[in-house]
């Protein structure tokens, strides 16, 4: 857990200045930010408004996946829609029933957006905002009035979010199966379903804009710019956030190398590899494996590996040589190379 907390700290510190936490906490909105490159797609930031609304402490939230807020009456079809949006790296806005720490269910408008690295077009974070949906039936029964032009501003805006469970490659099939289960929705009555108003939708959109504005500003100070839309097309070596999530389930120490890029850089490093070597992810990705060499590294094995990597007939012997000298397993594929401890 300590190693994951270290990765969570790096998730923000490597791209934003240290003041970004304070700036995000000054926003009146309630929301969470998640990092798909860390195993489990955990929450790496939770605003004060989110903590106040949900009843959880920051220590209980950070490092956890957003599915912790789901419960028995959470609509499974809606969750599958969110998972598909994560897989496809696109925004989504849905009505969803979630649960507070004390078990109280509530309806909210869930709005998710992405943060992209400007230099490589990679999705670095997901921002999720939740605006509570005020039941029109409840308002009528309690004698409350509501107006779209701001009359509802007295209502407390509570916004919090969470990225949903990571998606598998067969999630489309899962979605088809879930959509077929119309009669198995745990007894939710039709009148219990809530639809967000135009005002609530505008509140969610404004919250997203404010959060992205803060992240963009504090990324400019580090030179690692982010933006709310993909600013450049991902090139070779690009790994999508859905693949990051799937690779994060593998607990072994390994890296992926792209043989098609100049100097064959590492394009992915597992959490276990970072813990083993002591490097940060941004110090590894983009580098050739030779930077791991030292004075005791057998250069003859390195030379044999580089000359044999594309020869199918010598691949088995290359595996044996590398494993014998480095205690690691190496495999080669025309599109990717895997180096595992």
From TrEMBL:
<keyword id="KW-0716">Sensory transduction</keyword>
<keyword id="KW-0288">FMN</keyword>
<keyword id="KW-0600">Photoreceptor protein</keyword>
<dbReference type="InterPro" id="IPR035965">
    <property type="entry name" value="PAS-like_dom_sf"/>
</dbReference>
<keyword id="KW-0675">Receptor</keyword>
<dbReference type="InterPro" id="IPR001610">
    <property type="entry name" value="PAC"/>
</dbReference>
<dbReference type="InterPro" id="IPR000014">
    <property type="entry name" value="PAS"/>
</dbReference>
<protein>
    <recommendedName>
        <fullName>LOV domain-containing protein</fullName>
    </recommendedName>
</protein>
<keyword id="KW-0285">Flavoprotein</keyword>
<dbReference type="InterPro" id="IPR000700">
    <property type="entry name" value="PAS-assoc_C"/>
</dbReference>
<keyword id="KW-0157">Chromophore</keyword>
<dbReference type="GO" id="GO:0009637">
    <property type="term" value="P:response to blue light"/>
</dbReference>
<dbReference type="GO" id="GO:0009881">
    <property type="term" value="F:photoreceptor activity"/>
</dbReference>
<dbReference type="Pfam" id="PF13426">
    <property type="entry name" value="PAS_9"/>
</dbReference>
<feature type="domain" description="PAS">
    <location>
        <begin position="266"/>
        <end position="288"/>
    </location>
</feature>
<feature type="domain" description="PAC">
    <location>
        <begin position="90"/>
        <end position="145"/>
    </location>
</feature>
<feature type="domain" description="PAS">
    <location>
        <begin position="22"/>
        <end position="89"/>
    </location>
</feature>
């Amino acid at each position: 857990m300590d190693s994951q907390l270290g990765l969570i700290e790096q998730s923000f510190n490597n791209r934003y200045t240290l003041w970004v936490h304070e700036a995000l906490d000054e926003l009146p909105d309630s929301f969470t930010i998640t990092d798909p490159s860390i195993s489990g797609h955990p929450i790496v930031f939770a605003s004060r408004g989110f903590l106040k609304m949900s009843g959880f402490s920051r220590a209980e939230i950070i490092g956890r996946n957003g599915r912790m807020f789901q419960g028995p009456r959470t609509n499974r079809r809606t969750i599958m829609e969110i998972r598909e949006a994560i897989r496809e790296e696109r925004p989504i806005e849905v009505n969803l029933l979630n649960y507070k720490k004390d078990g109280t269910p509530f309806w909210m408008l869930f709005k998710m957006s992405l943060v992209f690295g400007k230099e490589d077009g990679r999705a670095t974070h997901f921002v999720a905002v939740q605006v509570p949906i005020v039941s029109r039936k409840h308002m009528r029964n309690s004698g409350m009035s509501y107006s779209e032009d701001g009359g509802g501003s007295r209502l407390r805006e509570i916004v919090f979010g969470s990225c949903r469970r990571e998606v598998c490659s067969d999630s489309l099939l899962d979605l088809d199966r879930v959509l077929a289960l119309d009669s198995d929705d745990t007894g939710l009555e039709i009148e219990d379903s809530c639809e967000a108003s135009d005002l609530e939708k505008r509140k969610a959109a404004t919250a997203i804009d404010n959060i992205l504005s803060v992240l963009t500003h504090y990324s400019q100070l580090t030179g690692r710019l982010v933006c709310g839309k993909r600013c450049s097309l991902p090139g070779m070596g690009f790994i999508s956030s859905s693949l990051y999530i799937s690779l994060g389930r593998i607990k072994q120490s390994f890296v992926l190398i792209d043989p098609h890029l100049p100097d064959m850089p590492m394009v992915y490093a597992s959490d276990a590899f970072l813990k083993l070597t002591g490097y940060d992810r941004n110090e590894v990705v983009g580098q050739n494996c030779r930077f791991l060499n030292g004075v005791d590294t057998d250069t003859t094995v390195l030379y044999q590996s580089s000359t044999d990597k594309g020869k199918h007939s010598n691949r088995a012997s290359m595996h044996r040589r590398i494993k014998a000298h480095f205690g690691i397993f190496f495999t080669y594929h025309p599109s990717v190379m895997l180096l595992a401890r």
